[in-house]
Amino acid sequence: MTDINKFLSDVQKSLKHDRQNNSGKSDYNRVKNDLRRLFERNAFAVGELSDSVFEYWENEYIYRSENLANEPSSENQNRLAAFLAFLESSDEYQELISDKDWNELGRLVNFEAEDLDVDVLQDLMKILVSKGAY
Q1: Contact 35, 72 (CB under 8 A)
Q2: Residues 6 or more apart in contact with residue 52 via CB below 8 angstroms
């Protein structure tokens, strides 16, 4: 299981490193691949589901931002950590996951279900049922 706070620290280090190498300016497009790899590495137990969840987060919260240069905001970093915690069957940061997010997570889990380990799938389904996603 991943330490969610360590994950957040790694995200912040990646963002800081990017700013240091680019005259203090942020640009999500420069860091997105690093963030994706970090997320997928931490959520390796769910295989392709991690990529689907990252894409949902990116499309729903990053690309809809008014200022892409300021993304991921602290709130969106925490939301990504909440999605990672869900994938690990943890309840950390779950208050940041909206009803719409839960429904989409349920849809994504259903789509990837046949490729998930049965125990992992059961754990995710229990959480989704408790959140009213089904």
Answers
A1: yes
A2: 108, 111, 112
